[in-house]
Amino acid sequence: MAEENKTEAIEADEKKQGVKKKRYLVILISVVATLCAALYLMYSMKFESTDDAYVESHMVRVAPKVSGQIVEVYINDNQKIKEGDLVAKIDDTDYKVKLAQADANYQRALFNQNVAKANYNASQSEIQLAKTDLERYKKLYEAGAVSKQVYDSAQTKLDNVMAKHTSAEQAIFSKEENKVADADLKALKALRDQAELNLSYTKIKAPQDGTVTNKNVEKGAYVQVGQSLFVLVPQEVWVVANFKESQVGHMRSGQEVEIKVDAYKDKVFKGKVDSIQRASGAKSSLFPPENAVGSFVKIVQRIPVKIVFTEKIDPEVYNIVSGMSVVPKVRVRK
Fold first, then answer.
1. What's the distance, CA 235 to chain centroid?
2. 3-class secondary-structure state, position 97
3. What DSSP state is assigned to residue 305?
4. Which residues of 7-34 are buried (b: 16+ CB within 10 A; e: fewer)?
5. How far is CA 161 from the centre of its chain?
6. What is the pTM of this model?
7. pLDDT in tens, 176-217
8. Helices and strands of the chain, counted as H and E runs
9. Tell me: the pLDDT tens digits for 259-276?
10. How far, in whole angstroms, is CA 41 from its chain's centroid?
């Protein structure tokens, strides 16, 4: 009987010890969990994050500078091209004719110098003759041998010849380039240069490196000046993140950013804050809201922040393109 009571006491004591151990274990787990939560909260307070962020890039709309029929197209959608690559060609027949006409007019102006010089020399002889006649008629008029009308006619003839001489002089090129002929030659040269430029514009070339998208040109189509043929997207990309106004108080240019792209969930890209827009997204929209009304409701504004990648991204491995969704995390505190 005594042994049974002793056994029961031992079992009861073991149960109490087990309950205490469990209690201590629960308390320990709670303390550790609270400590971890506090550490995580303190760590998370060093960062600001948003899922309202997207990849952006420049979009270059390529358009012809002259109109005409497309005779060749050398590109396809999503093709990578280099700056200066020939992408399309416009029929240049009309532009070759216009260049030939402009060049002919320019050459004619040069050849006309022989005629202009001859006219100038002739006008000098006419001036000498008119002066001699005027001097002779002046003496005859003073002697009463001729009438005043004859003398005045001689004077008028000299004036006309002098005006003709001035015109002939303006028709000759000068070293100072201050004559009418010089200005006319410059105008003809400008027309010839413009015709030469227009001929060169029939060859449409890539303005920079990039990838062809939204191709809207085919052989045989007639295109106008400024008509979009395709969109060229350069390789350079960045992130525009729309943070809440309450998140940008401690945000500064140059702060480190961790960037997660939805397409590559297992990869964290490195970046930095490049700049913060000086107006909210709503204020810089086409139709900004007007808050001076009686039904005003406060809405948290979003401030666009530009984030650039600081690591080199291999496009063959990570195809990050404009419009992709990302989640940036900016370290705003050390």
1. 15
2. helix
3. E
4. eeeeeeeeeeeeeeeeeeeeeeeeeeee
5. 59
6. 0.69
7. 777 777 788 788 889 999 999 999 999 999 999 999 999 999
8. 4, 15
9. 999 999 999 999 999 999
10. 44
